[in-house]
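writing this on my phone so excuse typos. first protein, seq and then structure
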Amino acid sequence: MRSVNINKDWEFEKEGVKTKISLPHTWNGEDGQNGENGYYQGRCVYRKSLSSSKEICYIEFNGANSVTEVFVNGNKVGSHRGGYSMFRFRIDPYLVKEENLLEVYVDNTVVPDVFPTSADFTFYGGIYRDVNLVYAGETRFSLDDGSRDGVTAIPKREGDVWKIALSANVTGADNDAVCAYTLKDGEGRTVASATRPSLSPQAELTVASPRLWNGVKDPYLYTLRCELVKDAKTVDEREIKIGLREIVFDSEKGCFLNGEHIKLKGVSRHQDRMGIGNALTVKEHEEDVAIILEVGANSVRLAHYQQAEEFYSLCDEKGLLVWAEVPVITMYSKARQQNAEEQLTSLIRQNVNHPCIFCWGIQNEITLSGERNKKLIEGIKKLNDLAHTLDPSRPTTCAQVAMAKPDSPLNRVTDILGYNHYFGWYMQTCDALDKWLDEFHRINPQARLCLSEYGAEAVIGYYSENPVQGDYSEGYQAIYHEHYIDAVNAREWMWGSYVWNMFDFGSAARNEGGVRGRNNKGLVTIDRKIRKDAFYLYKATWSDEKFVRITAKRYPCRVIGTTKIKVYSNMTEVTLSADGYEKTLKADRVFVFDDVPVRQGENRIVAKAGKLSDEILVEGVDKLPESYALGEGVPTLVRNWFGTDGTFKKDCLSINDRVGTLLDNNEAQGLLKLAAGNTVKKWYVRLLRPFRIKTLLKIAGLDPQTVDIVNGFLQTIKK
């Protein structure tokens, strides 16, 4: 097999306007993040000239969102439904001219039979990952089975010996061809080998007392070389990095990697960047992994879709344990079941050889619109069974939305389980988390639980001497996370947690904290330039790299008198000094100095921990700048995705309003577009205008808790 990248020199056409571009590319790099007038969702076309080929030739797309049709010289060669997996089509029968026209139609319109149809992130359109031409011979490892390599390697421990089950799909197999498998260690030495006929290419390699892939401590990789040999000549080959590791989950003791207890210290990752959306290169993937390692995480949840092959490989090399999942999210319908199964199949077949992946996620918040639908439960069970069939070696998991009750039947479908909770942000206070966790464990003592999402928004620019819930300050975000860290660490039975999110990300329908088109719960800004204060809290908790960091460094103005200075450090003792002031504290991660003097003009404040130091210049002022707080006309309410306290604000929408009132509200229209896409017929909407919203919810059979969630959301929208 020979792969040739063809990212350069494409023509892109959108609504009749043609431009020259190179891949990766998205047409939503700007409008998918600015929150103005929605973002373009439609059908665009990419064109490129291809030479003729006398070899067998496939075109390989590593990601195009979300419905793709491919034509060569006007002949349709294939289509793909789903925006996140790799797919290939054989095209050499159509490359009959010296110059051949390749046309790729990509459509990111929301359609009712493809996941996702509704979610809190932007569905960037485009060919946003690499495109390659893959050349192969008549006898080859399969390029048609939906996998990446055509070869699967599944390691399993049997005492001190490890067995690696090998299977391959061979196209053009015959009696004269053989499969030769060779396993080499990190130093290039052969440790095991096997040869099998290409007509029955299954094999098993035995490795005695191997060096294990042990997460970030020692991500040791072997190289599996797979060759198809015919007439004493290698006609096709693959090289696959594999790791030998065993991960076990216990309902009382948590997680064990290779027999050693490990708490999964996780962050979640959306793939998009400022200005370029999800059209990333290897450089951006490498930077993200470096930042994740810097904060001290040992695990990452790749939400909510299959991500780039390069990212999984980087996690293999660096030892990050990966929760991989499909975009079965928010709302379920039987019409999307087939597509859910197709996307799960692609995720597993294309990534099964990556040792970093420890579980397959089959749904996220799928009960956001209620779970009374029996077809929903049946559909999720089918996905769970499919995952086990495709890969019996890994557990399945899911991320339940907070409203799913502890005794929900969906909590008994997957092998391990996560819950998405935002106590202290969308609802109630942070300490409500502790009560919920203990009650859940009492009801479900056998459940193996983690926190799969939790977070609070922080917009760069907001500061308060006394941060409070909903002020969008870095200070409150940090307080929120201080509580969640302690709650998770105090419960040994929890196997881990995943911060939502590592990075701010595009969500076109959002308008919160003075920022449109973005979810600001990241520990790092969407451009990866600013690490928020909460980032250093996690670094102090998770990382072995010694450091000391004064928080609120972006807010130098303080009211004359005294101020509170908070320091994060993984040292045990910190000394803070200012003009005429010095104080030493011993603490665990969080050092709070309550009475630091602030005089008029410039004040130099220094924190020292051993040989480490950090400083901030504080300007004494009579009054904090107005820019430090949300201004007038800026939404100050947290958009409530999870319910209300039962009261009704008369100046905001509620379930008591009619559908027409909802449809006439510009902000609500944007949210409806996010939720329903283009799937709702206009005539049907006109018919519903006179009905009260609560009447339709009752007709739909939604339970009171879900109705309360809808009302809480409407109550954040001004009439």
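second protein below, same order as before
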Amino acid sequence: MIDAYIGLLVLWPVAAGLACLVLRAPALRSMLVMATAAVLAAAAVGLATQAPLTASPAFLASATALHVAQAASFLFPVYFLLMGLKEKHPLVIVFALLQLGLAAFGEFGLAAPAEVKTAVVCDGLSLALVLVVSLVGSLISIFALPYMKHHEEHLHLKTSRQPQFFMILLAFLGFMNGLALSNNLHVFSAFYEATTLCSFLLIGHDQTADAKKSGLRALWMNSMGGVFLHAGILLIQKQHGIADIQALVSPALWTGTTLLPLALIAMAACVKAAQLPFQAWLLGAMVAPTPVSALLHSSTMVKVGVFVCLRLAPVFEGTSTGRVLTLAGAFTFLAASALALGQSNAKKILAYSTAANLGLIIACAGIGTPVAIAAGVVLMVIHACTKGLLFLCVGDMEQTIGSRDLEDLRGMIATSPVTALAASAGSMAMVLPPLGMLVGKWAALEAAAASPVSMVMMAVGSALGVVCWVRFTGTLMSGVSMGSKADPAAHTSSLSTGPILTMLAGAVGLGMAAPWLNAMLLPAGVGNALGGGWGLMPPLFITAMLAWIVGIKVLGRQSQAKLATPYIGGLPSKEAGSFVGALGRNWTLSEGNEYATEFFGEPKLTKLAGVVAVALLLALVGGALI
């Protein structure tokens, strides 16, 4: 059965994607997407019943799989090079050529690594990513069915591009599952580059000028990450002659040797995880249809980065490389949380929040202790479900009112109550006790006790996140804005409602289970020691839920009330929404949140944060050389 489960997780989505391309009827495409979601969910749960395990499924352990991986190390850079030449993009060209050079050196200039006897390893970390991809990714794919129909109607397309879209979307899920389960560095690398290709194609899907520009930015940045990854793998091959990932993460292997190869791989992971200063590619991905943003931010692309760092975490414990990685992750958590606070674009808020929370997970990986790794895995799983929920909600609200600006989303509780309540619950799950993100942050702070600077940055970043999400929720749940674009007749599609409510149940359910998930991932002695402090979680959870229900009922009543015009202390004006103020001047009445752009504005803060982030990443690589 192991072979069957892994075959379904990796090969079925790719085959279903190809079928979507060939069978272009909308009804058949919907059936294929629904069937893929069911197959992935069943196979992931089936695999969970067998984990932890080591196995060698025929198709991943075969010589053919290795030959395909070797061919991919050349084919992907060649394709990237052709795209760079076509679009005359020098950075894409440079990094594609560097990847080709490294591939040639690895193939012809180095001795082949020792054979990897175990092709697949499914431990707690791998299983967590497989479940995230197969469950959250499948729900996003189902949400995409009605969304893309409305999206193309809005664009007035004469020929639908949905067959290509769903082919890439579904294949992406298969590639991610392959990446999560691979125990061979070269097979892992092939799946890694496949995710770069999928993200490039999905971000540029609409083929507008902005979409093409953002897609190329994602391509060159992630190709640069590919250069770091290949360089690290080749150094491992030269230094140790192995390609076995499980052997690689043994601290004993690195005793007395440089950690430069792992530092380079960590750099590649930081690019994939959109850590500062590489956050631009993820922000640019917002031009893509919302299912793409949800997939990249929650269950696929960015999770590659944190997965890699968590996989390497045991080696980082107590090393200077690990300490610098912790600082870099904690700094991104702080800086990206501050940048999120200065945004009014709802998708940008979610994007910066994603980069921030991934930074926190990478900081956990740098610490490398069992407590930190467990906290990182819990944060990875719960962030995927919660952030996927928020992206689906924002996308649904955007299609309802035609705007993603937070000021235009004021009073959505009256227009789209289901979506607004789900978004509010998701945003509160990011910060309120006793749900999972807070539990994960609590465990991360405990693990960071030996690093006061990182601990302070985590604490301040968490405080900024609270302000950001409270503002987000308050806006959605407030009375209708004077300039609201909401259409009272608008409603959420039933196909959209299902994934949103399922994701909501997952976010809340996993949040409640977070302490026990954390304890399960820890060694017995450590888990028992921490578990005693979490015995208060059930009553705290029940109390919090009751408070949520009361608060939602109160806000729901408030949202139905008509807002009175505020007293403005001036003479009335003939123009609606304005008044005559000092010196007889006509003033327009406006309302909105305070974004404190003088402190949290993007232009200045991005430059400053970018300089610090570059310095930390240079220290990450430089420190490994010492």
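Residues 317-560 form one domain. thats all i got for now
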